[in-house]
Design brief:
The complex is a heterodimer. Chain A has one domain (74-270): MetI-like fold (Orthogonal Bundle), CATH 1.10.3720.10. Chain A has eleven helices and two strands. Chain A has helices at residues 17-44, 47-51, 53-64, 76-104, 115-128, 131-142, 146-170, 174-181, 187-221, 230-238, 242-270, and strands at 5-6, 9-10. In chain A, helix 8 packs across helix 9 (187-221) and helix 9 packs antiparallel against helix 11. Chain A is flat, with a radius of gyration of 26 Å. Chain B has a domain at 91-102 and 113-159. Chain B has helices at 41-48, 71-79, 96-101, 110-114, 120-132, 148-160, 178-195, 206-212, 235-242, 248-252, 276-282, and strands spanning 2-10, 16-25, 30-34, 56-61, 64-65, 81-84, 166-170, 198-202, 215-220, 223-228. Chain B is globular, with a radius of gyration of 19 Å. The chains are: A mainly alpha, B alpha/beta. The A-B interface holds A 173, 175-176, 178-186, 188-189, 192-194, 197-198, 200-201 and B 49, 51, 75-79, 81, 83, 85, 87, 89-94, 98, 102-107, 110, 113-114, 155, 158, 162, 168.
Chain lengths: 271, 283
């Protein structure tokens, strides 16, 4: 950045004129896109329906209360399935994610030419497919039920956990690793003493965070037949049993609050 | 004991860090390696235990040629090369005891080390060393809970429990205050004397080097430009090592430095060995 001198005074500006202009232009384009899309969406919207929305919502709300508490006896089992699906799926995801992350991290990968791109591909493909879509496919492959949901959750978790974990591995302090290596430690010992202690907090945090997400994701997997609380939710919606729907939603909210509470506790404990 | 011949290191960036270094270190000798930042001090030390792979030259330790060793043999050789690091390089989340015992990793199998089942002899030695440096009451503290001086003492224990033939010491005082710096340097030299151990100590602080080393090697741009006694560091020699500066104060204080007084020595964190007295004299 050049500092121009005007009338003997050194003038300092944050950006050069061209850069400043480019930023203005970018803002202009952004606003224009927003305005155009707004008008496009508004053209395609049937406004009477939207204006009517508050009444519709209120109507639905009225039909939802009071929740049908007598139904709760039939929810424990699917809720238990949901928790199992989320937990076992998370475990499966983590077990596979650890070696994938090890191969994907630049500083630990055994082969930067072959294994690293492969690991990155596994991560990207797992991350780019939503667990609902995984579940859709798995239901057709291994049939409906909790197993399909668990595998769907697991496959989706691999990418998430492996990506965050390999980033944590890449951020470790290399000096600690070097120090362990300089004692004559073997490669496995260098990993166990130099790398593992450094990524362990991140690992625990990632696992619990993913478990927390998976509880929420597994509640909807029943919609495509993969078991859990989503199954009764789906049938309640299709039979317009709104009081049951509201009860199921309450149960889901309770479970999510519970999982968030647990993951917050765990994260507090490991920091 | 240690014989280095024609040691050359050229980094992949093309920088020539070491240019045909010849250096011999005798048993029990404490050599201070001084020189400006980027002179190749760290590279030289790291070439000896091959944390950095030398480009050319030979390094023989007690008759073992280090530069050509295969993986397993290199690990065995590294056990005999204790290293002490700038900013300690302790595994922060492990306890003091685990850090000290990690110095035995080269002698213990993976599962034993993983399960923390080290031989009792190693544990006895760890307790003995920690008591020697005055940290035996902190064995279960986590390394990141310690002060700088305490951490460096744990680092010293980790290097010594390897039962090394040679200590490689990289800027041991770079992040310590003047008093702690002296204590650490004194501890290192005392331990070397007790065990008749040789050491190569990279150090930025000329006065500290003069105070504690029996021999000084000056490095500049990858070549040795001075090799001799501590009191041979005249302003002339310092100019040869570091370049033109007013060295009068630094050189003058050399003879009286052995008295081990505890008044303020120069700031350890300064990259160049600027002396406060001299700076004060300039203004």
């Amino acid at each position: 950045m050049t500092v121009p001198v005007r009338q003997g005074v050194k003038v300092w500006q944050r950006r050069e004129r061209a850069a400043q202009f480019a930023i203005w232009a970018a803002w202009l384009v952004g606003v224009a896109v927003l305005v155009v899309s707004w008008s496009f969406i508004s053209e395609k919207t049937i406004w009477p329906f939207v204006l009517d929305a508050p009444q519709q919502a209120a109507d639905l709300g009225v039909r939802m209360v009071p929740p049908d508490w007598s139904f709760i006896g039939q929810l424990w089992r699917p809720m238990w399935d949901t928790l199992n699906m989320a937990t076992l799926g998370t475990v499966m995801g983590i077990v596979i994610a650890v070696p994938v992350a090890y191969c994907a991290a630049r500083n630990t990968t055994p082969s930067a030419a072959v294994l690293r791109p492969l690991a990155l591909f596994v991560i990207v493909s797992s991350r780019s497919i939503n667990s609902l879509i995984w579940a859709l496919m798995l239901v057709t492959i291994i049939g409906p039920g909790v197993l399909a949901g668990m595998v769907a959750i697991g496959l989706r978790s691999i990418g998430f956990c492996a990506k965050l974990l390999y980033e944590a591995i890449e951020e470790i302090d290399e000096k600690q690793v070097e120090a362990v290596r300089s004692t004559g430690a073997s490669a496995a010992q260098v990993t166990a003493y130099g790398i593992v202690p450094q990524v362990l907090p991140a690992f625990a945090g990632i696992s619990v965070f993913r478990w927390d997400i998976n509880i929420r994701e597994s509640t909807v997997l029943g919609l495509v037949g993969a078991g859990g609380i989503g199954l009764p939710l789906n049938s309640a919606i299709t039979t317009l049993a709104w009081t049951k729907v509201s009860l199921i939603l309450l149960v889901i909210i309770a479970s999510v609050v519970f999982s968030e509470w647990i993951s917050a506790k765990v994260r507090q404990a490991i920091i | 004991m240690l014989h280095i011949r024609g040691l050359t290191k050229r980094y992949r960036t093309g920088d020539l860090a070491l240019d045909k270094i010849d250096l011999d270190v005798a048993q029990g000798e404490v050599v201070a390696l001084i020189g400006p930042s980027g002179a190749g001090k760290s590279t030289l030390i790291r070439c000896i235990n091959r944390l950095v792979e030398p480009t050319a030259g030979t390094i023989a330790l007690n008759g073992v040629e280090l530069t050509t060793l295969g993986k397993a043999a290199l690990r065995r050789a590294r056990r005999k090369l204790g290293m002490i690091f700038q900013e300690y390089a302790l595994v922060e989340r492990l306890s003091v005891m685990e850090n000290v015992l990690s110095g035995r990793l080269g002698y213990v199998g993976f599962w034993r080390s993983y399960m923390r089942k080290f031989p009792q002899a190693d544990i006895d030695e760890a307790f003995r060393l920690l008591a020697r440096v005055g940290l035996d009451h902190m064995v279960d503290k986590r390394a990141d809970a310690l002060s700088g001086g305490q951490r460096q003492r744990v680092g010293i224990c980790r290097a010594l429990i390897q039962n090394p033939d040679l200590l490689l010491v990289d800027e041991p005082t770079a992040s310590l205050d003047p008093k702690t710096s002296r204590q650490i340097m004194r501890l290192i030299t005392e331990l070397c004397r007790e065990r008749n151990l040789s050491a190569i100590v990279n150090i930025h602080d000329v006065q500290l080097a003069q105070m504690f080393a029996s021999r000084i090697v000056g490095l500049r741009q990858g070549s040795i430009v001075y090799d001799g006694a501590p009191d041979g560091l005249t302003p002339d020699v310092l100019t040869r090592i570091y370049g033109e500066e007013d060295w009068a104060a630094t050189a003058k204080r050399a003879p009286e430095a052995g008295e081990d007084d505890d008044h303020e020595s120069p700031a350890m964190t300064a990259p160049a060995p600027l002396d406060r007295d001299r700076m004060a004299g300039l203004t």
